[in-house]
Design a protein that fits this description.
The chain is an alpha/beta fold. Helix content is about 45%, strand content about 10%. Strands 3-2-1-4-5-6 form a 6-stranded parallel β-sheet, sandwiched between helices. Helix 9 links the parallel strand 5 and strand 6. The longest helix is centred in the middle third of the chain and has 16 residues.
């Protein structure tokens, strides 16, 4: 991929814009454990980070060997939203990055639209995106397939090859790479670290650990 200044920067939401993964995965791990699938926080992060809820349910049901209750998703969502309202914060440094970026930006997340909207609202990040939000619920296949990122690029009127994606998960990096986009892999979160950075790099991302480095990686400043 030619590393040059992009025309559009596409941000994942969870773990990139907002520090939601510990909160959301704690809720999910507790809910799955209650359904007979013992799951720790670390296991939830490893198995489900970056996936749509539809994909999470499919994986969990495959492990359980049965369907989850019909109200499982609604219960998890309600508990997750409550946790977000109590204690969701922006990823350190991301607000400063958004202030500096002088390019079109959008969000492309595996989360449902109402979850994305809440995440951005409670952290006061929504004002940076002017309603340019794309959810996996808008496309047939979520991450790791490229559909969501291609949909976001088309919705913003941009060519895929001129987009840069900021991701933190393996499914997200796979999706962006499959879409033919340059991928910058944030490995500075709670589920990051050197081993995670290597995994993202092996999939084609340029890993980084500090949001302050992002504008330089996007060739917006020296």
């Amino acid at each position: 991929m030619n590393a040059r200044r992009p025309d559009l920067v596409i941000f994942d939401c969870d773990g990139v814009l907002v520090d939601s993964e510990p909160l959301a995965n704690a809720v999910l791990a507790e809910a799955l454990t209650a359904e007979g699938l013992p799951t720790t926080l670390a296991e939830s992060v490893e198995r489900y980070t970056g996936l749509s809820m539809r994909s999470v349910v499919e994986r969990a049901e495959a492990s359980l060997g049965r369907a989850l209750p019909s109200d499982f998703v609604d219960r998890v969502q309600a508990e997750t939203f409550a946790a977000f309202r109590r204690g969701l914060h922006p990823v350190p440094g991301v607000r400063e990055v958004l202030e500096e970026i002088d390019l079109p930006v959008c969000v492309a997340s595996s989360g449902a639209l109402d979850k994305i909207a809440l995440s951005l609202s409670v952290t006061d990040l929504d004002r940076y995106f002017d309603g340019h939000i794309f959810s996996a619920t808008m496309v047939p296949r979520g991450k790791p397939f490229p559909d969501l990122f291609l949909h976001a690029a088309a919705g913003m009127g941009m060519e895929a090859g001129r987009c840069a994606v900021i991701e933190d998960s393996v499914p997200g990096v796979r999706a962006a790479a499959a879409a033919g986009m340059r991928v910058l892999g944030y490995a500075g979160g709670d589920h990051g670290g050197e081993s995670h950075a290597r995994r993202l790099a092996d999939l084609g991302a340029t890993p980084f650990f500090d949001m302050a480095a992002l504008t330089g990686l996007l060739f917006l400043k020296d």
